[in-house]
Write a structure and sequence with these properties.
With about 130 residues, this protein is an alpha+beta fold. It has two domains: about 80 residues, Carboxypeptidase-like, regulatory domain (Immunoglobulin-like, Sandwich), CATH 2.60.40; about 40 residues. The protein contains two helices and nine strands, in the order E-E-E-E-E-E-E-E-H-H-E. Strands 2, 3, 5, 6 and 7 form a five-stranded antiparallel sheet that branches. A four-stranded mixed sheet has the order 4-1-8-9, with no helix packed on it. A hairpin with a 2-residue loop joins strand 2 and strand 3. The radius of gyration is 18 Å and the shape is elongated. The chain starts with a strand and ends with a strand.
């Protein structure tokens, strides 16, 4: 019997470097992958959807079909963003925390929420793509 395998590579993230990323196939967590790591996930031939997840951040979903003996390669990346965007995001996060600290508990909740949203929509975003 031939091996049917997904080869999944996670690029070297600048952010989220120390956090593990979960691989989710058809809604079930099947593996975890570290920064700058490649793993092999055996599957049976068929149709699937795959996405990656770090904490509450999900990547895009990809639908794919795999045949017996086939190896499909996927790359998880954060689509390298420029350094100035990293710094701008960190400065905005610090401002949100400072506003939060200034206005007490409610301010901290609001500042943290705004900061989390900024992070999620900028440097926290992850993507998965099939490699050819």
């Amino acid at each position: 019997m031939m091996n049917t395998t997904l080869e999944i590579t996670r690029s070297d993230f600048r952010m989220n470097k120390l956090r593990k990323c979960s691989i989710v196939i058809d809604g079930k967590k099947v593996a975890r992958i570290g920064n700058d790591q490649t793993i092999l996930v055996p599957v049976i031939p068929g149709s699937y959807s795959i996405h990656a997840r770090i904490d509450c951040l999900n990547s895009n979903k990809i639908q794919f079909e795999i045949s017996s003996g086939q190896i499909l390669k996927f790359l998880i990346d954060n689509r390298r963003i420029s350094s100035w965007k990293h710094w701008a995001t960190l400065i905005l996060l610090c401002l949100c925390l400072a506003v939060g600290a200034t206005f007490g508990t409610l301010g901290a909740v609001i500042g943290g929420g705004i900061g989390g949203a900024i992070y999620s929509f900028t440097i926290g975003k992850i993507y998965i793509q099939e490699q050819h």
